[in-house]
C-alpha cells in the first residue's frame, strides 16, 4: 500500500511550506544512506524525497490533496488505497457501472485531467523530471583578521570533509557557495549546494569601512604640539608613523595600500586616528610651564 506523503514527512495536512521543508531536512539527514546504515534507510530516503517533491510544489500539493479527498479511490496518487497511479486512468480497470450514481463523467481520463491539468502521461513525465537537490546552509564565525586576510578551513558535513576557501575581504553576512556539495538531486538531477554564511567577530584594534580599515594611536599633549613618531600595528606588520607637529586630536593619517587587499587587485588604505591625551594631574613644575605657555599664546 502506498504511503500518505504527509505521514511520510510526519506533518499534518495543514502544515506550512516551512514546516514541510524543516521536516524534510531533518528526515533526509536522518535517513541519508551515507549516514544511516540500516537496511531500510535507502528506501526510507527515497520515500522522503518523493513526498517532499510533491508537497513542496504548491501545484502538485494541491493536485495531491484533491485526489486524496476524491471519493473515487485515494490510491490514485499515493497512499490511502490499494492503487498506485502509473499512467493512463487512475481507476485501473473500473468502468462507469462500478460507480453507480456517478454517471455523466464520460472517459475517466477526463477526471484525472481535471485533477492534474492534463493527461496522465504528462503528469508522469513531470513527476519524474530531474530535480536539483536542496541546498545546505551553514554559518561560520571568523575573527576580524581571518575575514580581512582570507582563510582556508575544513568543514565536515554529512560525513564528508570539505575544504572551504574564505576569500580575503569577506564582509559580515556575505556567503560562500560550494557547488554540488548539498543534498543529492532527484531523478538524476544535480546535487544542491552548500551555502556558508559568514559572521565576523569585532576587533579590539581595527574597524572596517569597505576595504579601508581604521585604528587609533594615542599620543601625549606635548607630542601633538611638537610632533613625534609612533609605532602602529597594521593587518600584517608594524610600521613607524610620522605624526606632524600641531596634529589635532581626531586627525586621520593615511597609510596607503595597508588596508584590505582582494585577489582582483582592489586594495584599501589604513587610516590611523590620532587621540591626544590631555594630562589630568600636573606637577608643580608642569603647571608652571603650562602657565608660561598660556601667557605666550595671548
TrEMBL record:
Gene3D superfamilies given in the database record: DnaJ domain, Urease metallochaperone UreE, N-terminal domain
The organism of origin for this protein: Caryophanon tenue
CC annotations in GO: cytoplasm
Name the record gives this protein: J domain-containing protein
Annotated InterPro entries: DnaJ_C (IPR002939), DnaJ_domain (IPR001623), DnaJ_domain_CS (IPR018253), HSP40/DnaJ_pept-bd (IPR008971), J_dom_sf (IPR036869)
Keyword annotations of the record: Chaperone, DNA replication, Metal-binding, Repeat, Stress response, Zinc, Zinc-finger
Region of interest: Disordered: 56-86
Basic and acidic residues bias locations: 56-68
Entries under SMART domains matching the protein: DnaJ
GO biological process terms on file: DNA replication; protein refolding
Organism classification: Bacteria, Bacillati, Bacillota, Bacilli, Bacillales
Gene Ontology MF terms in the entry: unfolded protein binding; zinc ion binding
Domain J: 4-68
Gly residues bias locations: 73-82
Amino acid at each position: 500500500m502506498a504511503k500518505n506523503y504527509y505521514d511520510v514527512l510526519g506533518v499534518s495536512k495543514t502544515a506550512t511550506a516551512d514546516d514541510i521543508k524543516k521536516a524534510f531536512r531533518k528526515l533526509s539527514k536522518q535517513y541519508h544512506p551515507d549516514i544511516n546504515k540500516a537496511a531500510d534507510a535507502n528506501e526510507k530516503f527515497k520515500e522522503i524525497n518523493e513526498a517532499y517533491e510533491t508537497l513542496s510544489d504548491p501545484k502538485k500539493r494541491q493536485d495531491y490533496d484533491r485526489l486524496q479527498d476524491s471519493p473515487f479511490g485515494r490510491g490514485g496518487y499515493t497512499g490511502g488505497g490499494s492503487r498506485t497511479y502509473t499512467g493512463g486512468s487512475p481507476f485501473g480497470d473500473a468502468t462507469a457501472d462500478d460507480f453507480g450514481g456517478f454517471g455523466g463523467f464520460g472517459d475517466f481520463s477526463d477526471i484525472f485531467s481535471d485533477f492534474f491539468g492534463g493527461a496522465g502521461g504528462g503528469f508522469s513525465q513531470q513527476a519524474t523530471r530531474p530535480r536539483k537537490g536542496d541546498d545546505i546552509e551553514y554559518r561560520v564565525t571568523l575573527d576580524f583578521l581571518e575575514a580581512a586576510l582570507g582563510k582556508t578551513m575544513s568543514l565536515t558535513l554529512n560525513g564528508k570533509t570539505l575544504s572551504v576557501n574564505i576569500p580575503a575581504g569577506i564582509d559580515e553576512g556575505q556567503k560562500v557557495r560550494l557547488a554540488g556539495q548539498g543534498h543529492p538531486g532527484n531523478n538524476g538531477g544535480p546535487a544542491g549546494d552548500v551555502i556558508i554564511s559568514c559572521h565576523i567577530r569585532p576587533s579590539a584594534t581595527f574597524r572596517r569601512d569597505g576595504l579601508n580599515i581604521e585604528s587609533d594611536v594615542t599620543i601625549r599633549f606635548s607630542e601633538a604640539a611638537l610632533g613625534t613618531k609612533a609605532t602602529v600595528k597594521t593587518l600584517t606588520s608594524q610600521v613607524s608613523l610620522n605624526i606632524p607637529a600641531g596634529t589635532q586630536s581626531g586627525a586621520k593619517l593615511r597609510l596607503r595600500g595597508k588596508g584590505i587587499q582582494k585577489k582582483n587587485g582592489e586594495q584599501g588604505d589604513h587610516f590611523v586616528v590620532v587621540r591626544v591625551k590631555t594630562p589630568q594631574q600636573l606637577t608643580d613644575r608642569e603647571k608652571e610651564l603650562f602657565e608660561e605657555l598660556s601667557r605666550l599664546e595671548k
